[in-house]
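[Q] Does anyone have a clean structure-token version of this?
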Amino acid sequence: MHPTTMIYSLVTKTRTRIHSIELPIRATARSLQLELPFANVDVWLGGYGEINGRILQSFSCEETARSSYNRLCDRIKVCTSSLAKVQPAGKGPTERSRKVRVLAVYVGYPEDYRVPVELVHEHTITIPASMVKEISGSLYVPRWFLRKALIDRQVRQPYEHLVRVEGEWDGEEKLWAAVFEPMLKYLNESV
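[A] Here you go.
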């Protein structure tokens, strides 16, 4: 059974809940989707504690709200359904291609094979121009496409495994504005 709701609660220092927002979670054929006010996104929910089908997250100040926000953004980035922000790296070899720079995170097990190490590499890859989407002056590419392109290149050592494509996802600012910012406004008004 999968969780059905993610609840973010604003609490006082004595852990009394003063405001909360519920985000429904639904199962699709391939993943779990978090229903945000502006879109549905795939999310990896491993590691979150679950009580009666609900994932409860609490915060009492801006610092803990940012921490919750960053953790949720990271969980969305692990999935491949969102767009990833990339940096332009010039024209491609044809007019229908484009070069972009992307950060990829790998896990390696060097030498002793006991302790995994995260390694971040920047790659410049050529992709079809049709895969690049411009949003508010920034370039985005589907995360699944970047992941496939990096795996196809096989540029890392055999002991390194691609974990995720880094880069801000296309809904990060909207998530903060729709979920976390109103909660902090409510906190500031109630103090």
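[Q] Thanks! Anything notable?
[A] The chain has a mean pLDDT of 82.
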